[in-house]
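Listing S7. Sequence submitted for prediction.
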Amino acid sequence: MSKKVLILSTGDVNGAYEAMYKVAHIMKNMGHEVVMCVKHKTKNEDFIKTYKHLSSSIVQPSLLARIINKVKNKLNPVQPLKPLSTDRKYSFFSKDELKENIHVESMLKTVGFTPEFIFTGMTIDFLNSTDLLNIYNATKAKIYNITVDMNHFTGGCHFSWGCEGYIRGCDENCPAITKEDEKVTAKNNFERKYKNAQKAGFKIIAGSGLTLIQAQNSKIYKNQETIYNINSLIDTKLLNDKNKSIAKNIFSLSDDCFYILTGAQNMEDPRKGFSYLLEALEILDRELPAEQKEKIVLLVVSNSVNEEFDRVTFKKQKIDYIKDYRLLSLLYQAADLFINSSIEDSGPMMVSEALACGTPVVGFDTGVVMNMVINDYNGYKAPLKDSQKLAEGIRKIFELNKDSYNTFSKNAVKQVEEFSSYEYAEEIFKNILES
């Protein structure tokens, strides 16, 4: 039976926003009535709608409400919210969980129906858990938050960097906020988020092996009986290994070289751990004989390449960030290895994308690498920040004979088909929507 499904996301392109766009597509393909409501619309599909706040001439508070608000404003004038002083690496973007950012009637008018199910991803600068509670009170919809990062169960940060506040309850010791008199914000945010989740019965869906473990340990969601894990969302009709035999020719790459692909939208981001990758490459440079080093070529995809890459002695080639999935699929297939050096990451999606294209992956044991990359099967995992082990993993793939490499490649595809494909996600959403 068709359900009315609302997807909420700040945007519809890139990273976390793209993930929610994929969720919407999967549910549409399942035959449900789906609207993706965003603050910023980029794609031209009709099911994506930009939230429009009803004008004051349409939404008029009652006379009593206007009098009460006037008295309140005189007694306690509204002070502009000061920008928080934060450590940037935590991505503490959720500044105020108490504030109401949207009008529910405006939301429902924008959407065009009363949803039965709501799925949210990253909604920064759009709405928060208080807005979700208000929507729940008006619709009684079942609400599922998808962990594109940790924000759904923290006091404001998107990455914890080892802080366990999300487990015990964030407090005035928040390391993400640098000024002592502002640290209470994390405590207030967490307490409101916890109460809102209890009142509306929010549920969580994990987006990776790491966020599954984090959600299971979190104070807000630890009592949820079943937490599904969608492991990124890969459209295997676009991302697959069907052109692997000709992919190198398309990019004018040599069959005699071993191409290592790596990248991120911003390589300067400390979460991406590129300094450890540089160390691993330097280790390989010292250990490999000259004739083997000549075969290795580093392909770097990014909008911003770290200048430190200039010291890499292997041959290297910069490729501009690719948005076309058909071209990206061919690039993954052309590469012999994908390296994910992230040390604090809920994904990235590039890991599952590379595997889907039959490209083995070597990376640190975090994010989606935790359960999508299996040692001696489709790649290798290294302990966090262990450049030596990362180098060893790279070398193991590099030294595989042709038959062994082909087995790794087939296993990479199989892992995605079983645990990260649209078909896999459909089964999960079917269980949720029919519950």
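Caption to Listing S7: primary sequence and predicted structure tokens for the chain studied. The chain has a mean pLDDT of 91. The radius of gyration is 23 Å.
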